[in-house]
Design brief:
- Helix content is 53%, strand content 19%.
- By secondary structure, it is α+β, with helices and mostly antiparallel strands.
- Helix 3 packs across helix 4 and helix 4 runs antiparallel to helix 5.
Length: 202
């Protein structure tokens, strides 16, 4: 017959709590690794899909607008080919930091893959009247001179944006239309930004 004292039961309970905490920490870590870009620390494409669908659902409930801003670095292959992938990776990290500095955590930034970044924009900034100014600030910050060791250069970017519900009736269509606006900016000569169905800004 097993008899446990109060002290034994307390110790056993604490051990179980510790194991549960460790299990939860491991689960949280695995989730973070699966849903974040290892280089920049930004959420990745999988996390983006979930967050965008949540924001669109919230917009349906509240009527608040939400926008997607698509950022693509121009001719980034030239950076990798000229300076090597190590420098290219550092550039991507610098660009990620600059994107974050523009919105200061007010919106959700994602590394979509390769040299592409996407932002989910909400609040007043998601209004079409405010998006052009926001994209201009993004471009100005991203294109500042980059200094890495003895190298000094800059990269340009093409940026496109679309708004929900004006420009799309679903999260997937919102992303597609922001991507289309970005390609309109790129087709106009790169280093510019464009709202869907408007002319690119030089």
């Amino acid at each position: 017959k097993l008899i446990r004292t109060g002290r034994d039961l307390k110790r056993h309970s604490e051990e179980l709590e510790h194991k549960q905490d460790e299990t939860q920490k491991l689960s949280d870590l695995n989730y973070y690794i699966a849903n974040h870009d290892h280089m920049t620390g930004l959420p990745n494409r999988q996390e983006f899909k979930t967050k965008l669908e949540e924001k669109v659902s919230e917009s349906d409930r509240t009527g608040a607008p939400v926008a997607v801003v698509f950022v693509d670095l121009d001719n980034f292959k030239f950076v990798n080919d000229s300076f090597g992938h190590g420098i290219g990776d550092q550039v991507l990290m610098i660009v990620a930091e600059r994107i974050m500095s523009v919105h200061n955590g007010a919106h959700q930034a994602i590394r979509f893959g390769g040299d592409e970044f996407v932002l989910i924009v909400n609040g007043e900034t998601a209004q079409k009247s405010a998006l052009n100014e926001f994209m201009a600030r993004l471009r100005n910050e991203i294109t500042k001179t980059i200094q890495i060791d003895d190298l000094s250069f800059h990269v340009t970017c093409s940026i496109g944006a679309a708004c929900y519900p004006q420009d799309a009736d679903s999260a997937a269509q919102l992303l597609r239309n922001a991507d289309k606006a970005m390609f309109d900016a790129k087709s106009a000569g790169r280093d510019s930004y464009c709202l869907l169905y408007t002319s690119p800004s030089p």
